[in-house]
Design goal:
Blueprint: E1 4-9, E2 13-17, E3 28-31, E4 34-37, E5 45-49, E6 56-59, E7 64-68, E8 75-78, E9 84-86, E10 95-98, E11 105-107, E12 113-114, E13 120-122
Parallel strand pairs: 1-6, 5-7, 6-8, 7-9, 8-10, 9-11, 10-12, 11-13
Antiparallel strand pairs: 1-2, 2-4, 3-4
């Protein structure tokens, strides 16, 4: 299943996933596709496990992001923070479009595309 998820912080941090999302610790379920997590300054990191399928994740704010793309051809963009992104699934086709500011580590397969602003690119 393909997912498009967006993480953005305004007065509070909202996470929206059209395919459905479940609130984790410290977050409240708004509806089947949206969770709300804390006020600005209270939320400093986010963990996203995208699972299988062709997924797209955009982290719009400078949060420390830990992202596991899972299987499938995924597209990931982060805005800042010290990110840890894994798109290693044994197949080419994943794209890390941008890592933003911070010191970022991306683990990817040969044939994946990783932006030049991701400071450390390595296999497992």
């Amino acid at each position: 299943m393909a997912d498009d998820a967006v993480i953005g912080q305004f007065a509070v941090l909202f996470i929206v996933d059209a395919a459905g999302i479940t609130a984790g610790p410290g977050c409240d379920q708004v509806d089947a596709t949206t969770v709300r997590c804390g006020a600005p300054g209270q939320v400093t990191n986010v963990v996203a496990n995208l699972g299988d399928g062709t997924d797209r994740l955009e982290v719009l704010n400078s949060l420390h992001a830990v992202v596991d793309g899972g299987s499938g051809s995924d597209t990931i963009t982060t805005a800042g923070g010290n990110d840890r992104i894994t798109v290693r699934d044994g197949a080419p086709g994943d794209v890390v479009q941008s890592c933003g500011a911070g010191f970022d580590v991306v683990r990817a397969d040969a044939g994946d595309t990783v932006a030049s602003n991701c400071e450390l690119r390595s296999p497992f």
